[in-house]
Amino acid sequence: MKTLIILATTSLFTLFSSNPIDDDCTCKGFKLYGKIKIVENFPDLTVKVVENFPDLKVKLVENFPDKCGQWKMVDNFPDTKIKFVENFPDVTIKYVENFPGKP
């Protein structure tokens, strides 16, 4: 009985605390760094901007967006296309000036 309770508690903890970002800084196979394009239709990922408890801290850069959380906004040839949403995002972000990446 104790084992079942521990397993149920662990499963609930994993369900509610799991970060959708993989160790290689991807979500659903799409990079969360590099050249990013904002679209309205057919996004690779949906994103919500939050102030507290983000999945990813994002710094907007002009050059060399090659580390986790560094985004260069582009209109052509993006690595990942995103759409900003208010409900049911794939990932939540917070814009920062320093220390981008997973919190």
TrEMBL record:
InterPro entries: Septknot. It holds the Pfam family Septknot. It comes from the Bacteria. Residues 30-101 form the 7(1) septoil knot domain. This is 7(1) septoil knot domain-containing protein.
